[in-house]
Amino acid sequence: MQLDNWASAILYLSVFVTAIVFAYLGQKKNRKIFCVLAILLPTLLAGFRFSTGTDTAAYRSLYEQIGSESQQMIEWRLTESGLEPFIIHASIFGNWLQLPPSFLFLIFAAITTTFLFLTTRFFSKKYAWLFYGMLLLIIFPESLNMMRQLAANSVQAFALAYIFYKQRQNGRARVTPIVLLLALSLVLHTSSILLLPVFILPFIIRHIRRRTLTLLLCLAIGGCVLLFPMLLNFVLELGILPERHYLTFMEMPGSLVNIKFFAAAIMSGILLASYHRNNQQLDKQYGLLLLLGAAYSAVGFYSGYLGRLGMFFWIFAVMAGGDLICQLGKKESHRIAICSTVAILYFIVYFCVLGMNQIMPYDFGF
Question: 277: which residues sit within 8 A by CB, 6+ positions away?
Fold first, then answer.
């Protein structure tokens, strides 16, 4: 059943707003059932789509193919195809249970929403529900296209937010859960390996002066912009990425209008300036993180595929932007209204009007 564009927009906004209300109730009343509902609603919305989303048809076809393949073909997929093991094993399990492709969509949507929800808890105690709502409106719709990558990005975002949170509490993050989370992100999407250097940042941020690290990251941005082809060849020679992906990376053209690059660069500058005035550790951490995100997003000028790595930093940019609005707003009602308006307008313009990720119209089915 396919809705028209107006009905689709109303459906998306209704589900997201209801989920935000449940997140608010879960936080204020400390009731887990509301938190579960806040995660469940967008999960079901993404899970029961039929053809909505740029890559949905390809995933549906893959799921059905795996269900009819021989053991030899399955072994080839696991060892030679370059496809991550999580989606292969999930497809095998779902077909064994004779479930429709919606099973696959539900699993990835559940991972994405759960870890986005938990990430906001480490970022802010007071406004976690509000920032979760902003992520639902700005980030989550991308998962109807980049299903595997955004699931992996949400897992990594949770791991990094956990590390930063422990640092702000003058504690030490446990290594075992971080390693397990990073391993999960790798089996969800191969590109996660290119984000592993980001996790060095929390451990050097205490030992290098902010200005020195800012300068180094600015040089990294310049290097990514000017020397990307050379850097990619170097990575390929190290064997980090399969050579067969090289043409894919280069053939998907980048864009001169790289919104994630400019957003990360601007937000990092604002947060670092705020840190300079207020000496807030949160601003320092996320300001440097977003500056590093600008370096990663810079490759989007060359390769649209690798430029999608900026989505990982876009998660933090959204929360940092919401936090900045909350710092500037005088009344709590004004803070909530501004954050909500910005997120809703972004959703309407980016996804509904411009039609990004082809989430419009919504097509329901199993």
Answer: none
